[in-house]
Amino acid sequence: MVGAETGARDPRDDAALMRAHSAGDRQAFAELVRRHRDRLWAVALRTTGDREEAADALQDALLSAYRTADRFRGDSAVTTWLHRIVVNACLDRLRRRQARPTVPLPEVDRTVAPSTDRETALVVHAALDQLPPDQRAALVLVDLQGYPVADAARVLGVAEGTIKSRCARGRARLAVLLGHLREPDSAASRNPIADGDVPSRSGNASAAGTHWGKEGGK
Amino acid sequence: MTGDVDLDRLADYVGGALDGTPDEAAVARLVATDPTWSSAHAALVAADARVRADLRLLAAEAEPMPDDVLARVSAALEAEAGPGIPAPAGGHPGLSVLPGGRATRVPDGRRRRAVIGVAAAAVVGLGAISVAAQLHTSGGRGGAAVSSAGRAPAQPQSGATDLYASPDIRTSGTDYSPGELSALPTAPFSAQARQPQQQAGPDVMKDASSSPTSAATGAPDELRPLTEPAARAACLGAIMARYGGTPTMLDYARFQGRPALIVLLDGAGGVTGRKRAVAVGPHCGAGGAVTDERYSTQVG
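ok -> structure tokens follow
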């Protein structure tokens, strides 16, 4: 599990802070949030893909954690518990958003190679937003936040194999969105750079004769 | 013999999700013997490495929690903890998550002075809104002095029939929950649904020296200060500065049992049509910031 962030002024560890919070120490929970705020924010922002949604989700999650801290049993790390609440709040919002009619997201431009790492990061961020929420959440935890698969499985409450599957399928979809892999079942007309020599950042590796499975993830 | 490749299944294989399952051997056999699967496998392995490299670039980007989000979370937790938090020396609240426990409230003396300054700034902003509304109205609605809710505005002499310039003000007595705020009706209140309250015309918002509006008679006692035009303008100015948009409804009510002014914003975050509900306590607007926020959420 990823450890506490820097700058902790309180010598107590996370578990001790949780016990203190349950015992009525009103500073304890604030100290927990101070320690982990940047990681929790990054998870919320990257999972929702929207600053306002992330702020709302984080606020809801931390209020929920504050109220239900006495239910924390200590069978997982405090950070795992906090991340679980934050990710679930994000996924709840994403699912509600999916239920509403939305304007289709713009496709990633596969014909222009990003010139800087920053630009690449922005393109990847945009592509990540187009993944199904479950795949996105798994990729955020494992590939962006650096959680081991086992920890991500605990955060999301699923089996490790499910996390592997969501990450693998999510990366395959990203590969298509980012132009590293040809769209499954696509004809050249749907992807004009597939057989041409238009500059691409990837070379657009072929996966001819492929199609997605019936389900978007395990 | 060749067959179409199920990319999800192949991705599971490449990603190790099939390890130890019977399907692992089946996919391995296809990759070894079927040219289509073999080609797709090679392409996916190469693409997977590129995607991982791209993700590493994104992962390397620092994402510190922005100050405004930090302040908002801190305020929400302070509100959740309720009154009576033992304040350390220096006036810091007991539950700030800001670095060093920095206060999100300001001492009362400073707050009083700040309200006046912020009120003046807010008056300018609201005045601009009023002008915009007048331009909008004169642009094509003719002389019909009826709002979109089908009601005659309380102060038709302003000419501002635009809802943005004339937020509905009510004292519904509602004790809102977070869920109720996120599902707040975004259409103007119907004449039937409205409480017998007044509608605050732009002049009421602008005139910091005018007497408290009739909302004072129905508002919870703790919220009476926010019925003063100057204090209310300071509060709305602070909310608009943080979230953008314009207020379309104010309800002097409660949030989770505690007195709270509920403000519904339209165009929040500069996004047309995006609605946001904000619940604030009686100290809203102090110091030019939303210092007493209880909760905030997108609506709809």
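The helical segments of chain A are 14-22, 26-48, 51-68, 78-99, 117-128, 133-144, 149-156, 160-177.
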